[in-house]
Each structure stands twice: as structure tokens, then as C-alpha cells.
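Figure 6 in text form: structure in, sequence out.
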């Protein structure tokens, strides 16, 4: 009572907030200012996706496979067939369906290491629309505790600022692990950057060979009647003109050459280093596939026999690449969308592994083993299979 008397009239202290002790250290250099990404995502996307067939196929293969994985929504008690969140994911916005939106999100993460989802028209309820924002246009603004207080989206000099200090953040930021960046994720495209450069250079080299009759065909040697080995300027220009118009390019491939007096043709073949160049290109393609986690066999790359058959490669692709990406993204989306429901229930959005065709053989084996386990109750079996526990089920053991 005495202590309460002395406490009278003193202002109430603000509720304690929990934060990492390292937050102010992280934000010291840029609190309140935009933290720019340290990489040029536009150039990486141009050279590694739009300008490289292996990088393009890797991103398309992963993003399309991940977007096609069926999803299930459940909480601690039940699995939902109909829910506002499932309806939102089925029709996220007027321009995109579920598969298109998720493919764009997965592709952004693969290309830049970051994915940004915008919630539109929430007003304290489940958002009316979801939009995927381009990662190269987004910039993070850290606060004094190191966490983002805003995101800035810039297009052609115009900016829009998303405030993250409200009750429900309008932006969901999904990022890959980056060992040297506190705010942005690491892209597989960065890890494959050197291999992409090698592969692109090899493609340009091959194109140059095609433009020059597809091989270093040979040399024209001039021997004059008086022993001189040089042509007059007008003779040299005429010879170059004839070579360019009659003997270079794909349309002139195999065309016979007519040489006048004093000119001799010395054929030339590929050198050993030229023959190894194609192997270097194939090695670079395998390194690109390795960075993205795609079995080279699925890209049609020669010389790779890691898996016994295509079915094993496809199953490994789903288990090691597609499903980890889907599980990470859907878990973050489910946690973010749970805050909009208003009932305080935590929603668990996860891939429905029972409906993934590539895992059909594994699923059948697991279901058979679990169903034959007589020492497990029905509740324990459902938990092992990732199914919600039914309210009518008990926890007693079978038998």
C-alpha cells in the first residue's frame, strides 16, 4: 500500500517492446533511409533470364512446377475447403489467376532473391486483392530497430511509399538467405553469374563462327609472279568484297570458290582448343543448373548420368528444389494472411503433398506403412500424415 501511494501521480510507462539487441547496430548507418540492394538485378535478369536459354528454362521449370503444387489451408483443428483466404488465392486480382500470381512470385524470388506481395483493400478483413510487385523497383527503408518501417516502389522517377508501422503491414516480403545482407535476399542468379557469362560468351563465339561459314575455313595465300607476296590496294579491296558477298554467311555455305592466278587456298580445321570450347559451354550449362537445383538431365544436357532415369531426376527435383521453395513461401504467406482474419487463429498454408503426381510412389508407400501400423491410433496416424485431428477422435491407442 505504501509503495502504491508513492506511485500515484507518476505517468504510466509505455508497454515494453521486444527487439533484438543488434537491431540498432544494423540500422545505425541507414535508419529512415532507403537501403539499396547491392546488386544490379536488371542486368542479371537481362543476361541470365531473357538472354540465356539455360537460365530461362531453370527459372520457368521451377516457378511453373511450384505454382502448380496444390495447396491446403488448415488451422489447429480443421482443414478448410472453403475459406476467404482460399478464395483470395484462387482469384487474387482481375489480371491474374492463382497459378499466374504464384508463378510470378516464385520467379521474382529466383531472379532477385526477393518476392513482394501487396495486399489491397483489407480494411481490417481479408484483402480483396493480392498483387506481385517487381523486386527491382522495390527499396526497403529500415527503422531504428533494423526492421523495415516502409517500402518504396519507384517507376520512372515516381515513387509510392508503403507504411509498415500500422497494425497490418500491406507488404509481405519473402527473401532467400543472404549471408552478407541484412535486408535483401540472395538470388541463385548471382551464384550462377560466372557460369552465365561463360555460357553467353560461348554462344556469341558459336554465332560468330556461323557468320563466318560456321568454321575457320582457311586462308587465301597470294604469290605474285615476281615473288612478291602482297596485293595492290585495289586488288585487296576487290578480293575482300567478293569474299563478303559470295562466300560468307549461311546462304553461301558450301559455295565453290573461284581463284584467279597467284591465289592459293589453304584449308584450316578446328584446333584442339576449339574442340574443347563446346565442352566448356556444356560445363557452364551444368553449373547454371546446379545453382538453381535443376537436374541437368531435365534440361537435356549431354554427359550427365547422375540419376538412373528421368523419373528419379524428376522426384529429386521436387523433393530438393520445388517443395522447399513452396513450403517456405506458403508458410510466410499463411502467417501474413492470418493477421487479416481478425479471429486470432493461425492459419497454416502448406503444399498438399498427396496431390503431387511426382511423389505418387512415395505417397503410396507412406500411406501403406502408416495404415498397417496397428500400434498407432487414428489420431496419431492423421498427425503423421499431416492431417488435422478430428474433434470426434480420441487419443487412445488402437487395440
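Output sequence:
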Amino acid at each position: 500500500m505504501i509503495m502504491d501511494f508513492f506511485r500515484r501521480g507518476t505517468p504510466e510507462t509505455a508497454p515494453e517492446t521486444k527487439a533484438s539487441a543488434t537491431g540498432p547496430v544494423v540500422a545505425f548507418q541507414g535508419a529512415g533511409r532507403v537501403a539499396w540492394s547491392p546488386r544490379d538485378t536488371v542486368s542479371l535478369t537481362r543476361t541470365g533470364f531473357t538472354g540465356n536459354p539455360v537460365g530461362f528454362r531453370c527459372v520457368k521449370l521451377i516457378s511453373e512446377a511450384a505454382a502448380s503444387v496444390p495447396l491446403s489451408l488448415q488451422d489447429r483443428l480443421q482443414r478448410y475447403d472453403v475459406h476467404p483466404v482460399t478464395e483470395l488465392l484462387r482469384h487474387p486480382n482481375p489480371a491474374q489467376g492463382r497459378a499466374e500470381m504464384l508463378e510470378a512470385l516464385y520467379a521474382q524470388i529466383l531472379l532477385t532473391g526477393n518476392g513482394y506481395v501487396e495486399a489491397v483493400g483489407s480494411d481490417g478483413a481479408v484483402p480483396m486483392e493480392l498483387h506481385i510487385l517487381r523486386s527491382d523497383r522495390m527499396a526497403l527503408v529500415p527503422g531504428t530497430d533494423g526492421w523495415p518501417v516502409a517500402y518504396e516502389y519507384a517507376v520512372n522517377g515516381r515513387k509510392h511509399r508503403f507504411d509498415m508501422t500500422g497494425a497490418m503491414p500491406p507488404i509481405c516480403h519473402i527473401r532467400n538467405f543472404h549471408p552478407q545482407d541484412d535486408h535483401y535476399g540472395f538470388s541463385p542468379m548471382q551464384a550462377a553469374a560466372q557460369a552465365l557469362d561463360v555460357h553467353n560468351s560461348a554462344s556469341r563465339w558459336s554465332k560468330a563462327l556461323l557468320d563466318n561459314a560456321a568454321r575457320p575455313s582457311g586462308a587465301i595465300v597470294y604469290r605474285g609472279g615476281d615473288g612478291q607476296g602482297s596485293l595492290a590496294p585495289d586488288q585487296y579491296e576487290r578480293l575482300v568484297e567478293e569474299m563478303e558477298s559470295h562466300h560468307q554467311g549461311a546462304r553461301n555455305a558450301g559455295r565453290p570458290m573461284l581463284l584467279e592466278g597467284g591465289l592459293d587456298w589453304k584449308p584450316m580445321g578446328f584446333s584442339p582448343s576449339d574442340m574443347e570450347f563446346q565442352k566448356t559451354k556444356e560445363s557452364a550449362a551444368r553449373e547454371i543448373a546446379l545453382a538453381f537445383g535443376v537436374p541437368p538431365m531435365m534440361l537435356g544436357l549431354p554427359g550427365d548420368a547422375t540419376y538412373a532415369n528421368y523419373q528419379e531426376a524428376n522426384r529429386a527435383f521436387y523433393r530438393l528444389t520445388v517443395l522447399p521453395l513452396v513450403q517456405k513461401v506458403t508458410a510466410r504467406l499463411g502467417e501474413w494472411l492470418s493477421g487479416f482474419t481478425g479471429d486470432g487463429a493461425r492459419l497454416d498454408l502448406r503444399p498438399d503433398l498427396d496431390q503431387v503426381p511426382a511423389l505418387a510412389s512415395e505417397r503410396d508407400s507412406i500411406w501403406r506403412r502408416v495404415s498397417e501400423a496397428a500400434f498407432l491410433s487414428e489420431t496419431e496416424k492423421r498427425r503423421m500424415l499431416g492431417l488435422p485431428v478430428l474433434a470426434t477422435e480420441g487419443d487412445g491407442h488402437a487395440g
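Caption detail: Confidence is low (pLDDT under 50) at residues 5-14, 394-399.
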